Each structure stands twice: as structure tokens, then as C-alpha cells.
């Protein structure tokens, strides 16, 4: 959903001109994306052999009856019936803001538990991402929003059940990050289609000032501080040293040499964003095992970054040099990079249209406090409105998400009508403070782990998983099993009646 207060990664080149004129960008890593600057392999992820790729014809618009509404685009989905018995449950992943293979290859939990439940597994790609793009994109961008996406999922699931002659199969939806938000909202909007939802790292309270705007950066900072106070302080001081390059002759060229860039930097803002992205993304994916989600990284990469910083002899290097060395772990863990391209952002996973969503409905206030290790800045609603108007010609609707899906006084509201949602959060995840962290009712459960990162629980199990993660997954399986058993019990009772 994946972060960031002046820049979108894909609007970066435009903004760096602006931010350089204003000196270093304050808050350049804005929550306009739940993920930014993905550095994972550009090669297509390998999925298990039993997945099949299918395409479903979707209406462009589900909520009006104008001629344009019936324009069709083909929505991609992945399906595996390898473990399924007819009549068994259907596990559906509600796709995020990128191509669906990326999420399927990083959400092994669903496949891990499919044999136990004899479940059909389906990953649905979000409209306008990956291959699921309508024609005439510029003229159809207004149809890219979460409400249309949820309707896509509902229609596809109903059609799939009908075609499989398994309309009584219970459906459980899963999602992480923005996909987790969609999973929770899907259960609330379409309870007749999904019997339950596992919403992992879903910051549904990050809107409309329900969560402190500084919580994201404060959490990243605390992750580093918990490992090493010195590490935290070095990073905090490095921004001032970076800014000093603006005041010296040939500062950009000297910084380019220090940062081993492939080309001379055109803007110091790009170097700032490069550093910031490394620390933020690493905190998000501070997994207890090696992973290749945002980038190839070792287990507990925050700890590894701090070891690099703390390993420098006292006084031997500047704070900026130490911060650069630590950030290089994120960008060059394999050691194959001979230089760093800081200004040409790539989009290997098809995230290009998240900027539109962030500028229309996904408006998440963000700031950085003096307590964080990043330069302080205040949330600038007016400035972001201007940037969105400049980039897309649209004005944001900062109150729309809470109007459409709720969130204010969530405990009072959901305990009266909601049910069967698991909100899982790891407190090392910067997005966790925008999530549901307390049980709302007996069936809307918050599973919170102290050491978890960004949807750690949805990753495939490994022999190196710590006991707290195994226990979290056991709890999730038990809750999902309870939902399914209750559904089948009610179904049998209905048939008897």
C-alpha cells in the first residue's frame, strides 16, 4: 500500500527537479504506495507446476449502465485444483497493485494449507495491473479504484463456482498489504460470497487521521534503534551530511563518486530517496528467513545493516559513508552490482498505476517526527493535491475510503455487524500502526506478533521459521477451520430443513 510525502516512484523524475530546488526532499518516501522501489528479480517468478493461467472477461464499469460500462477487459487469474475435492473450500487471494505472479510466488501459506482443507486456490490480478489492463488506458483510468476491483472479484468468484458446479463451496479470501485491505473490505461488502477473510498487514486505519501520521517513519526508526542505538544515530546524522553536498562546488559529481553511481547524479533528491528506500523497505521485509520479495536479502536484514554500520572503526568514516554501506546491502546483497543507477527507477512488477490510486482514493497522511531517524516533515495535504493535479489532473478525496468502507470507531461498528476476519500484524512492520491491533469481537480477531514484518505469516513455511511464526500460522489455520466447519454444519442443517 508498499509508502512515502512528496514523491511517487513513477513520478520521480518530475519531482526531483522540484525537490532539488527546495534542497533535499523531506518525506520523499510517501505512502502513495504500499510498496516502492521494488528491486526483486525482473525474471518471472516460478510458480508450482499445477497453477494454470486463465483470463476472465470483466465489464469495465460495474456500477452504471452506460454503453461504455459494457466495454470488456480480460482479467488474469491463476488457479490450482491440485489439492481440491469438489465441494471443498475455495481460497482466493485478492490481488494487489502489481502483477499477480509476484504475489502468488510470495504467498506460499495458501498452498501450504490447501492439502489440509482440500482447497481450490485462486489468485486474482487487480484491474489495471499486470496483464489485466483495459484498452485506451488514458480514457479509462477513472475505473481504477478499489470498489470496482472488489466487484471484479465477486463476479469472477461467482462465475468460477458456477462453472465448476460447486456453488456451495465456502470461499475464504486472503490478502497482504493493500491486498489485505481488499480482503477485509471484501468480507464486509460481500459476506454472501466469502465466509471469512485473512487480512495480513492491512492498514485500513491509515486513512483520515485515524492513525498518527508519523507512525510509519517512527516504526522504521524504532526497528533500527532496537538493534543498535549507534546504527539509528548514524543514519539520523547522515542526512545532514548528504545535504551539505548542496553547498560545495561540484557536489553532485563528488557524491556520485562516493555513491558509485553509474552516471553523475542530476539531483541530490535521487540519492536521498535511494538511501531512504533502502532503510524503509528493509524494515518492511525484516523477515526471520532469507527472502527475495522486495530484493534478495538475508534473514533479519535490519540487524545485518546495523552490523555493517557498527563494524566501521570509530572515526574512520563519515556517517554518510556508513549509511551508504548499509544501504548497499539492500541493493547489492548478491555483490553483482558494479555501480548503482539511482535515477532510473524500474517497474518490473507492473506497479505503474498505483500513483493514480494514491492520488484519488488511497490518501494516507504521512509525516516524520523529530524522534525518527529521517528528516522531519509535516503532512502537506495542499501540496500533495497540487502534485496530483499536475500529474493526473485529479483532486484527491481524502475522506472517501472511510465513507465507503468505514474505519472510524471501528470497534463499536464492526462488533455489531461484522464477523470472520483475521487482522494479522507484525509490530516491526511500518504499516502495523495503521492496522487493527485488538480483537473487535469473538470472530474478528487481531493476531499481533512482536517480531513480525510485512505479512510475514503469508510467506511459505520453511524449516528455519521461528516458533512465534509457526504458532501464529497454527492459530490462523484453527480459526479458518472453525469458519469452514461452521459453514458446512449450517449447510447440512439447511439441507435437512
From TrEMBL:
Swiss-Prot/TrEMBL keywords: Glycoprotein, Hydrolase, Protease, Signal
Matching InterPro entries: AB_hydrolase_fold, Peptidase_S28, Ser_carbopepase_S28_SKS
Record-level Gene Ontology MF annotations: dipeptidyl-peptidase activity; serine-type exopeptidase activity
Signal sequence annotation: 1-21
Any matching Pfam family: Peptidase_S28
Organism domain of life: Eukaryota
Keyword Glycoprotein assigned: yes
GO-annotated biological processes: proteolysis
UniProt key word Glycoprotein: yes
Similarity comment: Belongs to the peptidase S28 family.
Name of this chain's protein: Serine carboxypeptidase s28 family protein
Amino acid at each position: 500500500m508498499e509508502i512515502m510525502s512528496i514523491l511517487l516512484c513513477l513520478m520521480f523524475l518530475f519531482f526531483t527537479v522540484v525537490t532539488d530546488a527546495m534542497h533535499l526532499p523531506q518525506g520523499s518516501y510517501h505512502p502513495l504506495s504500499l510498496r516502492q522501489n521494488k528491486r526483486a528479480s525482473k525474471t518471472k517468478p516460478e510458480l508450482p507446476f499445477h497453477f494454470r493461467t486463465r483470463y476472465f472477461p470483466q465489464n469495465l464499469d460495474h456500477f452504471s449502465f452506460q454503453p461504455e460500462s459494457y466495454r470488456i477487459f480480460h482479467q488474469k487469474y491463476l488457479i490450482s485444483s491440485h489439492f481440491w475435492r469438489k465441494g471443498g473450500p475455495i481460497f482466493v487471494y485478492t490481488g494487489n497493485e502489481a502483477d499477480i505472479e509476484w504475489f502468488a510466488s510470495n504467498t506460499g501459506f495458501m498452498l501450504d494449507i490447501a492439502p489440509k482443507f482440500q482447497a481450490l486456490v485462486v489468485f486474482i490480478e487487480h484491474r489495471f495491473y499486470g496483464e489485466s489492463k483495459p484498452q485506451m488506458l488514458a480514457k479509462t483510468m477513472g475505473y481504477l479504484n478499489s470498489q470496482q476491483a472488489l466487484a471484479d472479484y465477486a463476479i469472477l468468484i461467482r462465475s468460477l463456482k458456477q462453472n465448476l458446479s460447486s456453488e456451495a463451496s465456502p470461499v475464504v479470501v486472503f490478502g497482504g498489504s493493500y491486498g489485505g485491505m481488499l480482503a477485509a473490505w471484501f468480507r464486509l461488502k460481500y459476506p454472501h460470497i466469502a465466509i471469512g477473510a485473512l487480512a495480513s498487514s492491512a492498514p485500513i486505519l491509515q486513512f483520515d487521521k485515524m492513525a498518527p501520521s508519523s507512525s510509519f517513519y517512527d516504526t522504521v526508526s524504532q526497528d533500527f534503534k532496537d538493534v543498535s542505538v549507534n546504527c539509528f544515530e548514524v543514519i539520523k546524522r547522515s542526512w545532514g551530511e548528504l545535504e551539505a553536498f548542496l553547498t560545495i562546488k561540484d557536489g553532485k559529481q563528488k557524491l556520485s563518486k562516493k555513491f558509485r553511481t553509474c552516471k553523475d547524479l542530476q539531483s541530490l533528491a535521487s540519492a536521498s530517496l535511494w538511501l531512504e528506500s533502502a532503510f524503509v523497505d528493509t524494515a518492511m521485509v525484516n523477515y526471520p528467513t532469507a527472502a527475495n520479495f522486495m530484493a534478495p536479502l538475508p534473514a533479519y536484514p535490519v540487524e545485518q545493516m546495523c552490523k555493517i554500520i557498527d563494524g566501521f572503526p570509530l572515526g574512520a568514516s563519515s556517517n554518510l559513508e556508513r549509511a551508504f554501506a548499509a544501504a548497499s546491502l539492500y541493493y547489492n546483497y548478491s555483490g553483482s552490482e558494479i555501480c548503482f543507477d539511482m535515477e532510473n527507477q524500474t517497474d518490473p512488477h507492473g506497479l505503474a498505476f498505483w500513483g493514480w490510486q494514491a492520488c484519488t482514493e488511497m490518501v494516507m497522511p504521512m509525516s516524520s517526527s523529530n524522534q525518527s531517524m529521517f528528516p522531519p516533515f509535516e503532512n502537506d495535504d495542499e501540496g500533495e493535491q497540487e502534485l496530483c493535479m499536475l500529474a493526473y489532473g485529479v483532486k484527491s478525496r481524502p475522506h472517501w475510503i472511510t465513507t465507503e468502507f468505514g474505519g472510524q470507531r471501528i470497534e463499536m461498528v464492526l462488533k455489531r455487524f461484522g464477523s470472520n476476519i483475521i487482522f494479522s500484524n507484525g509490530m516491526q512492520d511500518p504499516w502495523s500502526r495503521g492496522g487493527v491491533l485488538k480483537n473487535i469481537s469473538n470472530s474478528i480477531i487481531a493476531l499481533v506478533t512482536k517480531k513480525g514484518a510485512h505479512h510475514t505469516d503469508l510467506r511459505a513455511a520453511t524449516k528455519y521459521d521461528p516458533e512465534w511464526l509457526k504458532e501464529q500460522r497454527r492459530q490462523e489455520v484453527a480459526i479458518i477451520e472453525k469458519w469452514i466447519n461452521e459453514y458446512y454444519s449450517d449447510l447440512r442443517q439447511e439441507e435437512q430443513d
